Amino acid sequence: MKLPETSEWVLHAAAVIAQLPSGATVSAAQLSEHFGVPGPYLSKQLAKLVRSGILTGSTGPRGGFRLARIPERISILDLVAAVDGAADPYVCRELRQQGRGAARPEDCTQPCALAAVMRDAHEAWRESLSAVSLADIVAGLPAGVVDKNRRLLG
Amino acid sequence: MKLPETSEWVLHAAAVIAQLPSGATVSAAQLSEHFGVPGPYLSKQLAKLVRSGILTGSTGPRGGFRLARIPERISILDLVAAVDGAADPYVCRELRQQGRGAARPEDCTQPCALAAVMRDAHEAWRESLSAVSLADIVAGLPAGVVDKNRRLLG
DNA sequence: GGCGTTATACTCGGATACCACGTGTCCGAGTACCCCCGG
DNA sequence: CCGGGGGTACTCGGACACGTGGTATCCGAGTATAACGCC
After folding, report:
1. Which member of A67, A116, A120, B91 has the greatest number of CB atoms within 10 A?
2. Residue at minimum CA to C1' distance from nucleotide D27
3. Contact indicator for A64, A98 with CB cutoff of 8 Å
4. What span, in angstroms and rounded, lies between the C-alpha atoms of B93 and B110?
5. Per-residue CA distances from B140 to A116, B133, B135 (Å)
6. Are the beta carbons of A150 and A17 closer than 8 angstroms?
7. Contact A130, A77 (CB under 8 A)
8. Do A82 and A49 contact (CB within 8 A), yes or no?
9. What is the structure's pLDDT at B85?
10. Who among residues 44-73 of B has its Cβ near strand C, under 7 Å?
């Protein structure tokens, strides 16, 4: 079980975008330079955030990305789910009802206990990620980093 | 982010093995018939459980697998970690210190806040899985399933 | 009849191909800006 | 000097190859069993 490496890119990129002055935008090329990652591939990931309604993208000169809503209402879970999908990593294929030892349907009125445990764990993971907003991340950045970003974005 | 499909196999197989009479064993071939999954591949996964110290495997006729310790002391996390590894799905590559906008080392005295959030979420997932033991799963099985397994294992 | 030896059949364990998803790249459609020209 | 039109350059968005890890399979090493022959 592993998240795409681009998850980290998207999280850091969103943190930078959140520091933009109101109305300003930043391009994928600028961000790729900022982080030292492949530009076109980063652009591909940011497009996912646009499709998820987290960012809005504008084309043309002075175009780029900006947040679609205030950072207080963007959770880390929103970002991770946008780039990786919201599906549960464990999928129950009803193994108990297959093969020679298949359980009879009348014994399967309750959902599979193992699937329930895995689902609860995933829910705990989601809760933990949704408890932190992008604004919380930005608020915790060291002053030096904020200054550096301000210079980039200004 | 997704778990190997074999995670489900291992969880169900462990639940069956936990119902074995004391001292008895069950072979990978029996289990693969029971669940309708490829035998050699299942054997490969069970070998991981042996390496993790959850099962013990004996060769020869009447050989097979049995639990290495009581099911109360085997958590779902133990099983999942054995088959998928215990690594955090999110790996922090210190993106903040790379590229043109790299933060200075003196601004990175604190660990990356994003990595910390992801780590906490993973820890919540692990806690949730470690709270349930194999004995809990077996105790919750319907009576019909237990009977069916008893007939298989007896 | 009891015991040692041998042959056997069955088990796990690791080494070997195949395939899908993430990774990396490219090019095209669309748009706001800027310059130029005319009034 | 001011307004309109066209060209331009820049942006995002989706379509196209490549590599790594999961999936599936096989065969070999090792061992408890069972039969067999001998004492």
Report:
1. A67
2. B40
3. no
4. 15
5. 12, 11, 9
6. no
7. yes
8. yes
9. 95
10. 44, 46-47, 50-51, 57-61, 63-65
Residue-wise pLDDT tens digits, A62-77: 899 999 999 999 999 9
Distance, in Å, from the CA atom of A132 to the CA atom of B131, rounded to the nearest integer, reads 24
Are the Cβ atoms of A11 and B127 closer than 8 angstroms?
Answer: no
Q: Is B8 helix (H, G, I), strand (E, B) or coil?
A: helix
| Inter-chain CB proximity B100 and A36 less than 8 Å | yes
Tokens of B132: 């349930």
- The answer to whether the CB of B91 falls within 8 A of the CB of B140 is no
Selection from B119, B56, B45 nearest residue B82 by Cα: B45
| Closest-approach residue (CA) in chain A for B143 | A107
DSSP annotation of B56 reads E
Candidates B117, B124, B2; CA nearest to A87 is: B2
Handedness of CA A69, B1, B67, B32 (dihedral sign): positive
3-state secondary structure of A133: strand
Rounded alpha-carbon distances, angstroms, from residue B51 to A24, A100, A127, B57: 55, 28, 33, 10
- What pLDDT is attached to residue A53? 95
Q: What domains, with CATH codes, occur in chain B?
A: 6-153 (1.10.10.10)
Listed in order, strand segments (DSSP E) in chain B are: 55-58, 64-67
pLDDT of A154 higher than 80? no
Q: Do B137 and A145 touch (CB under 8 A)?
A: no
Residues with CB under 7 A from strand D: A 2, 27-30, 40, 43-44, 46-47, 50-51, 57-61, 63-65; B 4-6, 38, 40-41, 43-44, 58-63, 84
Read off the pLDDT of each residue in A3-27 and give the average, rounded to a whole number: 96
Q: What is the per-residue pLDDT for A133? A: 98
Optimal mutation site among B90, B127, B147, B149, interface A, most CBs of chain A within 10 A: B90
| B4, closest nucleotide (Cα–C1') | D22
